[in-house]
C-alpha cells in the first residue's frame, strides 16, 4: 500500500459515530499512510468529512448532522449493499474496514473537495445558461444527474433509478399526516422525529414545527427504515409548544418533496402521461429549482407530460421531474387529468386567485 499523493490541503475528518477500536485503527491508518493528507478533528464545525459506522445505533442522526453541515460522509457496515440503497450518495464501505478502500475513498473525496474549493476561489458563481439559480452542488443534491428518457415510451420500462418511493421518506409521513388532518378535521402530529411537526387543518392547512431547514433538509433526503418509530397521532392545539413557528402545509410538502426526489418521479408515475397544474406554489415561502418558474408557467397553461414539457423548454428532464414531484405532493395538479400515484389531498376549499383567473381565460376561448 502506498500513501496518498501530496495534497494541497489536508481533509479534516470527524469520527462522528465510530467505536473506540475502529477509532484507534483509523487514527493509526492515517498516521501511517496519509499523515499529511487527512487529519482528525473533534469539532463538527471544522470537518469536511464525517466517518460513520452504520451498524451502531443512532447512525442516521450522524448522517443527518453531516447533511445539515453539507459535509461528505464515509460510512461502513457489515451489509454495505443494503445501506447503499437506503442512503443514496453515501460512500458505504464494508466491514472490517480495510485501509486500502478507506484511503482510496479519502483520495476521491479529497480531490473533489479541493477542486470545489478551487472553483469557488478563482471565480464567482455564474448563472447557468439553462436558467439555474443554484450553486452546482446544491443543484445536484435537489435535481440529481440522471440522463433523459426517450421522447416516446418504448418496450423497455424506464430504469428504476428514475423513480423513488415517497413512503420511504419523511415526505410520505408528512403527506399522510396532512391528509389525515384534513379528512378527520383534527390536528395531527408526526411522532418519532428529533423535533415537532404538527399539522393543523383549515382553509389553508398549516404546520407548526420546531424543525428548521438546516435539520429538515437532511431528514427529508435520507430514507427512513421500515421499523422506525415514526407515526401519526392526534394532538391538542391548546398545548402548542414553545419555539414552534408556522408555515403552510403546501410549502412544506413542496420543499420536502424536492429534497426527497432528487430529480426523480414518484414510483408508479408514467413519465409520458399528460398532466396540468391548477395553481402556483408560493415561491415567496419556499425555494425554486432550475427552471421552476418556466415549468409552472407552462404547466398551468398546457397539458403536458413531464417528458414532453422538458422537450418543449429544451431542458434536462430531471428539472421537470423535480417540479412534478413537488407539485404532486403539494396538491397542485388537476387530478381529473393526472393519474395520481398517491392519494390526493382533500380539497381545502381554497382556490387561488391565479387559478380563478386561468379558469376564466380557458372558458373565454
Describe it:
There is one protein chain. This protein has 365 residues and is α/β, with parallel strands linked by helices. It has 2 domains: 11-122, Rossmann fold; 164-364, no CATH class. Helix content is 39%, strand content 14%. It is built from 12 helices and 12 strands. It has helices at 20-33, 59-68, 80-86, 99-122, 136-143, 170-184, 213-221, 249-261, 292-299, 306-313, 317-329, 353-364, and strands at residues 11-17, 38-41, 49-53, 72-77, 91-94, 163-164, 188-191, 197-200, 206-209, 231-234, 245-248, 265-266. Strands 2-1-3-4-5 form a 5-stranded parallel sheet, with helices on both faces. Strands 10-7-8-9-11 form a 5-stranded antiparallel sheet. Helix 6 runs antiparallel to helix 8 (249-261). Residues 1-7, 118-132 and 349-358 have low confidence and may be disordered.
